[in-house]
Amino acid sequence: MNLVIATRNAHKLEEIHAIFDFRGLEVCSAFDFPHIPDVVEDGETLEANAVKKAVEIARATGCWSMADDSGLEVAALGGAPGVYSARYAGEPCSYADNNAKLLRELAGRSDRTARFRTVIALSDPAGNARTVQGCCAGQIIEAPRGTNGFGYDPLFVPEGHALTFAELPAEEKNRISHRARALHAAHAAWAPLLRP
Ligand code: IMP
């Protein structure tokens, strides 16, 4: 049985392979289907985008497909940037631009609680999809720290830790992250479906 991970983000693929036990499956990614155009992520929720990506890639390849969509949800900003996390500072923008905007929006706010949330969707070749999610709660600090990871990692200190995601070793981030938790939930829920 073939499973296509619906992403062309090498960083994400690395994290997924570090966590998900794909034994017995032929796993490939959107990198292996260069002729398939990128899926437009225009959903209004993480769920909508994850389902759209999984379903479009499953239908285009004739394989099962797994897709994820993640975002940072900041309590004092009503859950923003959320589904708009990648393009918070406008389009195109860098991770540094997004981090700078987040710090501007939170200036003077005492509530700096936030969570990362990942939704993973799995679609069969006919386009029937289901989802699971994983969250990681924490705090947004006042200035970036650390060089590991990507995105908002330098500003996010996960609950129970003193270091940011960008200061923690990758193995520790992969143990507690929203994506890790969603992948564990995916494995628990879908391993029987994905058994060859
Ligand atoms: P994606 O859906 O996984 O591509 O995530 C969308 C955006 O959310 C990314 O461009 C990042 O800005 C942010 N994001 C998602 N996951 C993480 C993470 O693990 N660390 C930091 N930022 C993240």
Sheet with most strands: strand arrangement: 2-1-3-4-5-6
Helix content: 25-40%
- The end-to-end distance, rounded to whole angstroms, is 6 Å
Q: For the residues shown, what is the average pLDDT?
A: 94
Percentage of residues in DSSP E strands:
15-25%
The beta-strand count equals 6
Number of helices: 5
* Highest CATH level, the class: Alpha Beta
Number of domains: 1
Unreliable segments of 5+ consecutive residues:
none
What's the overall geometry?
globular
If you had to describe this structure to a student in words, what would you say it looks like?
By secondary structure, this protein is α/β, with parallel strands linked by helices. It has one domain: Maf protein (Alpha-Beta Complex), CATH 3.90.950.10. Helices cover 32% and strands 23% of the residues. Strand 1, helix 1 and strand 2 form a beta-alpha-beta unit. The radius of gyration is 17 Å and the shape is globular. The model has no long low-confidence stretch (mean pLDDT 94). The structure holds inosinic acid.
Give a short summary of the structure:
The chain is built from 5 helices and 6 strands. It is of the alpha/beta class and 196 residues long. The site of inosinic acid has 16 residues, from strand 3.
